[in-house]
Specification:
The structure is a homodecamer. Chain A has one domain (about 1-90): Alpha-Beta Plaits (2-Layer Sandwich). Chain A has about 90 residues and is α+β, with helices and mostly antiparallel strands. Chain A has a four-stranded antiparallel sheet with strand order 2-3-1-4. Chain A has helices spanning about 15-35, 60-70, 90, and strands at about 1-10, 40-45, 50-55, 75-85. Chain A is elongated, with a radius of gyration of 14 Å. The interface between F and G is medium-sized, with 14 and 14 residues.
Chain lengths: ~90, ~90, ~90, ~90, ~90, ~90, ~90, ~90, ~90, ~90
């Protein structure tokens, strides 16, 4: 099943540059794994902030939660999840 | 998969009593079928309005949409859908 | 450039069934053209309502507006447009 | 009487891992007691966050408040409570 | 049990004066019955609109819904219901 | 004059237990004085949070502000004040 | 006592010009009376809409409601009322 | 003085095509006059709707209101006005 | 030109009493200067919080910003500014 | 392509004056470069806060994000981006 997930990251401005860089690098690495495993099939940045929208693929909402919770930035993330249904234009 | 669906019905106040009664009766009948088929496993009224919250069961969001769209009141309905994941307390 | 467009359709409940069906058929036909022309690269239904989210491709916001305004349902549509930037995971 | 309770937990990201784990374990334990006592009859996780919705059973809102306030995570919780009425589909 | 109910009435401005007056008179009459029966123990007008807040008494949310739905203005009403718990200052 | 006051208390979760208990005890004591003086004629807890709604009596908004500002928890409080008018059902 | 009242007028666009002009003239006339009687001590238009903010003077919220309800445009008005307290800068 | 004005037009979908076209033509004509007179110094369409944002120039809010109210579409318009101050980057 | 300015002050609850008192005294002193200079022609406290609404007079939004930024509490302030136009009732 | 960008800066009130001044000076310097390069074609301050709206020019949303992220205040900024289409009044 597919989900639209809108992820906003709220890293505190005063976080040390090194910790910040390490977290962002780990996040990118975990993201690559999720793309490779087919769990993220499309992802875009919302300009002007640390925020992205992506199309996630998971068996159900339970697996989806585990995938999002596996992100290194999870404690700093606010994620809005929207379940997606097939649209007639895609189902042709 | 389970979904929390919050349904608000906005029938115009000036609708004829007969049409209103017929629609509500048809809605109740369709609701009974959805309960019998296991698609609605729990449903509650939000007091003070024509509004309910229910736990729906569907293969995925595509089937869920078809089920909601099968309601006779669908053209007058605003429905908010939330995908539900298993909670550790239920998975024990 | 890519845009996330969230389209909600508000057809009045009392619209005649024939006009409604004709409008929805014309909308689907125009949608197929936009998909074929590469202007819509992904589209999903939000369950529970006449609402969809889609990834649109256009030279710029001016062309995007013309494409959305070409939809037969445009007078009944509320559309939220979000400009999308490339995400590092896609740019790899 | 039944209530729909939407619980969002806001643990600070910088909380020590040990305190966090202890709190979450105590919360799970208290949750099991509430399920066993029949005060929580259904509970689901909202994917993407530390958030759940549940159906609570209590004599009245006063008892419900005491039950929610007994959660170890109560100081970090924002809870929205909705009183639930019987729906005709359940009352059949 | 007690509930705080916030009632906003949205009568269309173009309703005939006679129908409007009859509805408001019937509403007042039904209100007097609810006060006499102890279902409304306090009621105040929010200035500037057809809106009131009141403390309602009912066995549970199911009875409360029936009481609100018995108002002649119910089809034009939007009601927000908040379940109330005993406060230590009142429980002394 | 009467006012509906909705008070939400936001004590930081990490406040020391002793300071917290002392503040809450002082708040309860000041509340008892306000009840005894007739300034609070009804008060209820909103379940699930440190939040209450109450009917306050004061000469005018200036006195009301002084009364609310006299609460020991005032620096942690967000209060919404609604001026109340007499309702025909009460004025009978 | 003083109140800040924010009044938005929602006349339907299709109202006949004559009825519209008559209503607006009556509203202006009633406004002049309220100014002359000292019930409106300051009034400003919010640019871009049929909307104003004003400082109203009334014994209490009950009288204020009667004054606002006496406006010819009352059935088309949405009014937000804020009770005002004396500010130290004015009380000097 | 400069103002940012966000204008949303809500023409009813069922308006006759001829009336609609006439109104939009008159609006465009009045817009050209406002541009020529220097009252609109920049204007952009928000894609996906009948909506624009523009930089308006007026002596003060009183003149601005008269300019906006002179638009043929004024009865169907919702306009949000933001007063603009000089930014140091422009004042260099 | 006149502006309606809604000022909410968010001093942290844990600020030292001495710093708090000094800031509030300085704010009151600066407020007196602004009143004396004719920049604030009316000011009221919103009861229940550190919040006020006032009518400010300034040449334009640029001067208004400088006046607000001159307040000692400016770093803790959230201010909403509304440009005000002359109302026909005042212009008589 | 053009974008309307609404930037709100949330510097903590307790930041040291020297760091604050250095950041604001660096921000102004970077802003001058963006103006000189034609990336910001108009910018205004929203009075009463550290907030501005500006018209930005960029190839696409990806370049726009890089430009905004190059601001020294980026970690303290919340930016809302709106894609802008050509308006008929500008395209004449």
């Amino acid at each position: 099943m597919e989900f639209l997930v809108d992820v906003r990251v709220a890293l505190p401005a005063e976080m040390e540059a090194q910790q910040r860089a390490a977290l962002l690098a780990a996040e990118l690495q975990r993201g690559r794994e999720l793309v490779a495993a087919g769990h993220i099939s499309g992802i875009w940045r919302i300009p002007g902030a640390l925020r992205n929208v992506a199309i996630w693929q998971a068996r159900d909402a339970t697996e989806l939660h585990e995938l999002i919770a596996s992100l290194p930035l999870f404690p700093w993330i606010a994620a809005d999840v929207t379940a997606l249904a097939t649209h007639p234009l895609n189902a042709d």
